[in-house]
Specification:
Length: 736
């Protein structure tokens, strides 16, 4: 006979949401530990009234009803586990495990029966559905109708918010109103927070960091009420998970943190932590509104009718006993400065990180609490480039990661020893001893501490080496050098010196000389900008030419990472609908980083592809050698000389299209408007006009004939030419 029976994949049903956890049945009772919050629900065997096994959605469930009327529901069981549970109940519990059949008919009328804190709606003496009355937040009445509202659970994707029940009137007129009777039954067991009676104690004007402001805290037997200038909050004692009392690093303040689930709601904002701040030296004296009998029976004399001392001590003691939760304080960890906290940043906000005996907590914005049992691994990474800080990464078992950045460098040894003592898996521990040393990390290269980055760089160097080895399969294009080309081929029609047949002008010679000097200067600067390794590589090759790919050569093999990415590309698209194309590689890089030992498979495939490529390349080179031919080059790109040339088209008869020199075009915004031409010509400087005259004097014979035909076809252009000539002659006289 086993002492306990445990189920690891079980869900607790709380207000319409399934919370994963572990369920254990032992001789003293039933214990459930939540995977999300770590909260433990313990049901003593002496408090259990009955247990039922029933069919639920997607499996089977266990319902436990206590003697006070409360119930607990656990889903996720398989049908074959019924015999194990039944056998364990019969041998260890004096309560039998019963089977409960549910009504599955589609009727919406029946009889409502109240059994403790549960309202069961039955059809044909079978329960159609059940409503735990502790989930009811409000109930209102109408004519022959009762409307009940439910507490909202943020974890439930689909939540039931309201139900209405029609209650027919009794035939006996002297009987009590059935609507009123039904409403009173619900209200008596519903979880409705009402501030009735006097509070146990009131703490006035307490500074709250989250939610921000000053609130008056009223402590009631079943809930806490925060009363502020704008908002009021009510916190049931059942929602309080943990209490933390944390000293500030400056020893002037104390943080009192209340962890809650479900969190406080204010619109769309959630507050899972209530953070109070007290001054260490501030003291107070208060009286509790409790009788001596209540202090003895309910609180075991741990509270007194009159309490005095530091404010944080009084508040923490009262909330500890009223909420029935233990207070967590920092343990043995001490930072380099002798405090219990380390300054750091989380999500661009500065705060304090407290290493506790069973987890980490960060305050204050946003507060984060991480339990050791949630952590899969931690990682120490180099922070800023100056080497004064480092980062602390915490990987959780649910796949998420939390990064605390900008931790002081001198705190590394203390934090490393603490993490190592708690036996947390350290990713980059390597062959280090128990004492960690960050000096090597900061003084060495970054890739030595980033395995993924190191591997990617190695693969890149390997591909570069392969490219250098394949000289026989690649050719080089000759660089375009205008100095080696014929002068007539390089000149373009928009240059001022189109033909060398005409006389030279002094200004034109000066301009051309200046252009040549600027061109040589730019060319020399571009040569100086060339990197030395690249230049040396070209000198070793014996040529300053660029390599050209052989389209018939075997294709280079892909790296292990590229093989992995191509294999998982469709899976990434399916798991992330609407993902951008550029984000696929980022997601693939994250997956590749977390592959772990499975990388060996892809590395072997990459090695096989490399061997196959070497073999094909060797055969291809031998084939080229036997045929005596050269590798067929890829399609040659258009040279600059070809792109710069313009195809000359003969002028058609009757075509009145205007031809203008480069200088005239640059000063003209609209060649189709004669008015704009006149305005532009009048604004032209004497130097611009003189250059245009020199250009026209250098045109060839064919150009002069085209201008003659143009002048005969357009009278308007004759006026423009005459006006242009007159203005130019006057400018020439002035210059002389």
């Amino acid at each position: 006979m086993t002492d306990s029976l445990e189920f690891s994949e079980v869900f607790s049903l709380i207000r319409g949401a399934l919370n994963a956890g572990r369920l254990q049945l032992n001789k003293t009772g039933i214990v459930f530990k939540s995977q999300k919050t770590g909260k433990i629900e313990s049901v003593p065997l002496t408090d259990i009234d009955s247990c039922y096994w029933m069919r639920v959605a997607r499996g089977f469930g266990l319902k436990i009803i206590l003697k006070d009327g409360q119930n607990y529901k656990y889903h996720g069981f398989k049908e074959i586990e019924y015999e194990r549970l039944k056998d364990y109940y019969s041998k260890n519990y004096n309560v039998p495990l019963q089977e409960q059949d549910l009504c599955v008919k589609g009727w919406n009328w029946g009889s409502a029966k109240f059994k403790g804190a549960i309202m069961s709606f039955e059809v044909d003496n079978k329960a159609a559905f059940e409503i735990p009355l502790r989930d009811v937040s409000q109930a209102t009445t109408g004519k022959n109708e009762v409307t009940i509202e439910f507490h909202r659970n943020d974890d439930a994707k689909v939540a039931l918010m309201e139900m209405r029940f029609f209650v027919p009137a009794y035939q006996d007129e002297n009987a009590e109103d059935p609507v009123k009777e039904f409403h009173e039954q619900i209200i008596s067991k519903a979880d409705i927070i009402q501030a009735t009676g006097d509070a146990i104690v009131t703490f006035a004007e307490v500074a709250c960091l989250t939610p921000r402001g000053r609130y008056s805290i009223r402590v009631y037997p079943s809930f806490l009420q925060l009363h502020g200038k704008t908002y009021d909050y009510k916190i049931p004692h059942t929602t309080v998970l943990r209490l933390f009392l944390l000293p500030h690093q400056d020893n002037r303040f104390m943080f009192f943190v209340v962890s809650m689930d479900p969190p406080l709601r204010q619109g769309q904002t959630r507050y899972p932590f209530l953070i109070l701040q007290f001054e260490r030296d501030e003291e107070m004296t208060c009286k509790l509104n409790l009788t001596e009998e209540e202090l003895e029976k309910k609180y075991n004399n741990k509270l007194s009718s009159e309490m005095s001392g530091s404010v944080f001590e009084v508040v923490s003691r009262v909330l500890k006993e009223v909420c029935q939760r233990k207070i967590t304080v920092p343990g043995s960890f001490k930072s380099n400065s002798g405090t219990s906290a380390i300054t750091c940043s989380y999500k661009a906000s500065n705060g304090l990180l407290y290493p506790l005996e069973r987890g980490f907590i960060f305050v204050h914005k946003p507060p984060v609490h991480i339990r050791f049992e949630e952590i899969s691994a931690v990682n120490f990474a180099r922070g800023s480039t100056t080497g004064r800080t480092f980062d602390f990464d915490v990987d959780l078992k649910n796949g998420t990661s939390v990064t605390f950045s900008s931790l002081p460098r001198e705190e590394y040894d203390k934090l490393f020893d603490f993490v190592n003592t708690k036996k947390l898996h350290i990713k980059n521990k390597g062959n280090k001893s128990v004492s960690g040393n960050l000096n090597d990390m900061f003084e060495s290269d970054e890739e030595e501490h980033d395995a993924y980055l190191k591997q990617v760089k190695a693969e890149g160097r390997e591909r570069d080496d392969e490219a250098d080895d394949d000289d026989d399969s690649e050719e080089e294009d000759e660089d375009f050098n205008p100095a080696n080309e014929k002068e007539d081929d390089v000149k373009e029609e928009f240059d001022s010196d189109v033909s060398n047949s005409s006389g030279d002008d002094e200004d034109e010679d000066e301009n051309s000389e200046e252009k040549k000097k600027k061109k040589k200067k730019r060319k020399s600067e571009s040569k100086h900008k060339e990197s030395k390794p690249k230049k040396a590589k070209r000198e070793e090759a014996g040529s300053s030419t660029k390599k050209k790919k052989d389209k018939n050569a075997p294709k280079r093999p892909m790296s292990a990472y590229m093989l992995f990415l191509n294999s998982n590309r469709e899976k990434i698209k399916a798991d992330n609908p609407g993902i951008a194309f550029t984000d696929i590689s980022k997601k693939g890089a994250e997956m590749w980083k977390n592959v772990g030992g499975a990388k060996e498979k892809w590395e072997n495939l990459a090695k096989e592809a490399k061997v196959r490529y070497d073999k094909e390349m060797k055969e291809y080179k031998e084939k080229l050698k036997e045929s005596g031919g050269a590798p067929s080059p890829a399609k040659k790109s258009k040279s600059i000389k070809d792109m710069m040339k313009k195809k000359e088209t003969p002028k058609k008869e009757g075509d009145n299209t205007k031809f203008k020199s480069k200088e005239y075009i640059e000063t003209d915004d609209d060649s189709s408007s004669s008015d704009d031409d006149d305005a532009t010509e009048k604004k032209s400087s004497p130097a611009e006009v003189k250059t245009s005259k020199s250009t026209r004097s250098k045109r060839g014979k064919g150009d002069d004939e085209a201008l003659v035909a143009l002048d005969e076809g357009s009278a308007q252009e004759e006026e423009e030419e005459a006006e242009f000539s007159g203005e130019q002659s006057s400018d020439d006289d002035d210059s002389d």
